[in-house]
Design a protein that fits this description.
The chain has helices at 4-27, 39-51, 54-74, 79-100, 108-129. The chain is built from five helices and no strands. Helix 1 (4-27) packs across helix 4 (79-100) and helix 4 (79-100) packs antiparallel against helix 5 (108-129). Helices cover 75% and strands 0% of the residues. It has one domain (4-129). The relative contact order is 0.19. With 136 residues, the protein is mainly α.
Length: 136
C-alpha cells in the first residue's frame, strides 16, 4: 500500500540526492591540491577544504536533507517499493542534472538506461496500485 504523499516524498528524496550529486562532484574540484605532511593532517586539510567551500557545502546539506526525508519516509512506506523507487529515480535525476550542467553522460546507452529505469519504476508503482489498499 502506497500513498500519493509517500510517492511525492520518494520523488523529493530522488531530486535532493540526484540533483546534488553533480554539484558535489564540482565542489570537490581542487581537493587534490591539498598537500599535508602526514595522513591525519591531510585528512583534516581536506575536511577544511570541503567545509569552507560553499560550492560543496550547500549541495552537501541539501543531499543530507534528502537522507532525512528518506529516513522518515521509510517508516511508513513499503521497503520493497521505497528502495528501488528512490534509488532508480536518483540515478535518473543525477543523469539529467549532469546533462544540464554539460557533463558527458554516455550518449544513446544512457538514454536507453533512463527509459528502462523509468519503465521499472513505473512497474513498481503500478504493481502496488493493484494491491488491496494501493495508491490512495
Amino acid at each position: 500500500m502506497v500513498s500519493f504523499t509517500e510517492i511525492l516524498c520518494l520523488t523529493l528524496v530522488a531530486v535532493l540526492w540526484g540533483g546534488t550529486n553533480p554539484f558535489l562532484k564540482k565542489g570537490t574540484e581542487g581537493i587534490e591540491e591539498v598537500k599535508k605532511t602526514n595522513v591525519v593532517l591531510q585528512f583534516l586539510g581536506e575536511l577544511k577544504f570541503l567545509f569552507l567551500n560553499m560550492k560543496y557545502l550547500v549541495p552537501f546539506v541539501l543531499n543530507q536533507s534528502g537522507s532525512v526525508v528518506y529516513y522518515f519516509t521509510l517508516a511508513t512506506t513499503d521497503l520493497s517499493l521505497a528502495v528501488p523507487v528512490a534509488n532508480s529515480l536518483t540515478f535518473l535525476v543525477t543523469l539529467l542534472t549532469g546533462m544540464i550542467l554539460g557533463e558527458e553522460v554516455g550518449g544513446k546507452r544512457a538514454v536507453v538506461g533512463m527509459c528502462l529505469t523509468t519503465l521499472g519504476v513505473t512497474l513498481c508503482v503500478a504493481s502496488s496500485i493493484g494491491e488491496p489498499g494501493g495508491v490512495s
